[in-house]
Every structure is written in C-alpha cells, then in structure tokens.
Amino acid sequence: xxxxxxxxxxxxxxxxxxxxxxxxxxxxxxxxxxxxxxxxxxxxxxxxxxxxxxxxxxxxxxxxxxxxxxxxxxxxxxxxxxxxxxxxxxxxxxxxxxxxxxxxxxxxxxxxxxxxxxxxxxxxxxxxxxxxxxxxxxxxxxxxxxxxxxxxxxxxxxxxx
Length: 161
What we know:
mainly alpha; 6 helices; extended
C-alpha cells in the first residue's frame, strides 16, 4: 500500500498549554505579545529561584557569584543553541527588544555620518523604527522599504534610486 500523508488536522491540547502560563488563568485576553509576552510557569519558577538564591553581581570572585555567572552562561548557551548561533558570544541579553534597539542605534549613531542611510520596513515593530528616527537629528536618512501588498515580498528594486 503506498504511503498517504495524513490529512487530519493536528489538535492542540489548549487547556494543557494554558496551564503552563500563569497569566492565562484569569479572564484577560492578551493581544500585545510584542510588548509583553506571557511567561511559562517553569521560567517564572526558575527566575524566582535565581532571584532568591543568586541575585548577585556576576563575574566576582566569591562562590555565589561564580554560581550565578555559570547559570547565566548556561542560559546564554541554551539560547545560542536554540537560535543556531555560531558562538554564545553572539547572543546579547537585555531588558527588552526596545531597549536593545535603542542601544544599537546609539552605538551606530557614533559612527554614522550625515547622509548615511538606515532602512526599515513598513512592517517593522515600533521598537525597530523609533530609535533610528532619533538619528535623523544627526542627518542620518531613514528610509522605509514597503512590502509589496500583492506578493508580501520586499522588492530589491524598490531600494534603487
């Protein structure tokens, strides 16, 4: 008998998934995931345990600092593996995407010259637009690359002068 791919729609055990997110136990519906994603209970538990037992300065010579440093390194290594980074040093942890983009734009702003261009898309989150808009005060040109509404592609030809 030849192989026939399944046409059944996989089911999601919604209640099972929801029970792993404490915030979803209430009556609220969260539609702002980019601004505040809900956190898995296991992550909340791990962060709580870290804060209770090892919330100290990282990289110091005393024992609990070494333990905390190793825990953060473990997390960074896991993230590097998850995103297939060549090296954990490529992973930057920060308070939020918005904060990290602001830092990145500030750093770029130290080297960019008036007339240099930064390109964002019309589908980018605000976190990747407003930091670059601030560089316009320095004469940096911010261009918006629009997604083709028919194909949902970014057309390279749209960037040509």
